[in-house]
C-alpha cells in the first residue's frame, strides 16, 4: 500500500508541476492547454468517467452482496459518488454541445456566460468556488481524516458513508491550497483534472482488498491520457470542413467587420469575450441590429442573430490585446473544429495552421 500511496500522490502532484512549468516557460503552450476541447479538458472528462464507472461497479457488487436489502448498508453513498462523477464529466463537455454542434436552449444562451448547455456556469462564481473548496477539503481531507478515529469511522460505516483513503489526504489538501491560492490563470482547470484523478484513485483504493492495486492505478492514469488524446484526434478529424458553412462564416465575419468599423461599436484594450457577452456587458446594442444581424435575419436565423453565434452554433469572439506599442484587435469564430486556434495576437486561420475564421479590425 505504501508504493500505491506514493504513485497516486506523485501522479497528481506532478500535474501542478507541469502547470507551473508551462506557465513559466511556455506561455503560448500553457494558453493552448487550458482551452476547451483540448487534451486537458478531455483528460478531466475521462478521469471523471472512469471514476464513475468504478464507483457504479462497486455499488452494484455491494448491492448484490446485500441481497437487495433496502437499509443503511445499501451502497447509496458509493452510487452517489458515481453519479456525481458522471454529472461532472458531462458538465465538463457541456453535455456534448460543442462535440455535436447543436444549439443550446435560449435560456442557457442568455444566462450562461459561456453560452453552453451546462448548469455550473449559471451558478454564481463565488458560490461555485465555495462548493469546490468544500468538496476538496470536506470530502478529501476532513472526512478521510475523521475516519481514522475508529468511533467516527464505525458510525460512518453504519450510515453507509465511505471516505477516500487517508493516503490521498496529501493530494486533496494540495488541490485545496492551490485552488485557494490560484497562482496561474485557469488554475481551476488543472485542479479539476487533479480532482478527477483523486476521485478515480479513491474509487480504486476503496476496492483495495482486490489484488494489483498498483497495476490498476497505472492503468487508470495511462488510460485516461490515451482516451483523451484519441478523443482530441477523432474530434478534429470528424469535424471536417463544411464548404457551405465556411462560406456563411466568412460572410458573417465580413458583416461583423462592417459593424465594428462603422463607428457604432467600440472595443477596448484587455477584452477577450464571447461577442454576446461583450455586447451585453458593454452595451454595444448595434451588434443586434447592424449588418451581421441583417444578414442572419434575411436567412431566417433569428436565434443565431440574437445570440451572435457562428454557423456551428458556437459563439463569435472579440479579442482586443494591447501591450506597450503593440495592438491586436479581431473578431473570430472557432471554425469547423469548434476549437480555438487563435492566440493573444493573431487569428489561428489556415495561414497559421488552424481553422479559425476571423478578421482583424486594426489593420
Summarize the structure.
By secondary structure, the protein is an alpha+beta fold. It has 15 helices and four strands.
Please tell me about this protein's structure.
With 363 residues, this protein is an alpha+beta fold. The protein has 2 domains: 2-238, no CATH class; 243-360, no CATH class. It has 15 helices and 4 strands. A 4-stranded antiparallel β-sheet has the order 1-2-3-4. Helix 3 packs parallel to helix 10 (187-206) and helix 10 (187-206) packs across helix 11 (213-238). The chain is elongated and about 70 Å long.
Set out the fold topology.
Layout: H1 2-25, H2 27-33, H3 39-65, H4 76-92, H5 97-100, H6 106-111, H7 125-146, H8 150-158, H9 169-181, H10 187-206, H11 213-238, H12 243-261, E1 271-274, H13 275-281, H14 291-298, H15 302-307, E2 317-323, E3 326-333, E4 357-360
Antiparallel strand pairs: 1-2, 2-3, 3-4
Helix pairs in contact: 1-2, 1-10, 1-11, 3-4, 3-10, 3-11, 7-9, 9-10, 10-11, 12-14
